[in-house]
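Please review this one:
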Amino acid sequence: MNIQITCRKIHLNDARKEFIEETLLGLSKYNLDLQSIHVVLKQDHNMIDIEVIINISGHSAFVFHQEDKDIYGGIYSVYQSIEKTLRRYHDKNISKKRKYQKITEVMYLDSVADTVIEEDYDDLEETL
């Protein structure tokens, strides 16, 4: 996972950079193929605008915005909304996989049952 941080009209020290990277590394727990994360920080008067763009393979980009006076609080708030969205995306993909798995199991069981019925029918014809 590649994390890029861009700052506009704001100074980013090492402590802030580490906080952002450590916080966003927590997103790896959803086992999604995260290609890249781009964080854009902009200073507007006394507010900090935080924009996070997450690219997942096989899907278009997720974009999140947050404005806050404190950079740490803003990162935490945007992280919560990212986590909520990725959790839903992950659960949706899991349920699709389970649904497909159930359909293939039913199709397999139907084909096995058809084979057994045909064999029983052939045996019945031979005895008559």
Notes: The two ends are 69 Å apart (CA to CA).
